[in-house]
Input
Amino acid sequence: MATFAFKLVKGVVGSTLLAGGTFAGLCYYTIWNADRQVQRIDDDLADLSKALIRAEDGIKTHLETLARDEKQKESIAKKVEDVKTNLSKAEEQVTRLKGDLQDFSKKLDEKKQNIVAQKQQTGLLQRIREERAESVSVRSVSLSPRGYC
Output
């Protein structure tokens, strides 16, 4: 009976050890699996942190680009305003020059009319002079001693 009891105790202890070993193995596997999952989560967090840093750098770059673009837009808007101002001044100058041209054209027409009038007066004076010269010559011929011969 002693051997049976010993065998029974041995079987119970062996079963217990086997069950305990299996349980311990199962516990170690569960801990190892959980540790692996935690490691994957840590790796994922590290990757996400790197991606977040890259995204923040990208946002910073885009904000700098946006600021440059805003400055360029303001500069272009100022240039457009300058061009509009210059165009307005040029239009005023064109209007003034058109008025000056019309005034000059009127003065030129008046001078042309004055020249025509002066030519007519000069022609009249030449005719009068020629008539007087002819009259003087007729008188001198008629008064000359030869004129009666």
About this structure: Helices lie at 2-143. The CA atoms of residues 41 and 142 lie 145 Å apart.
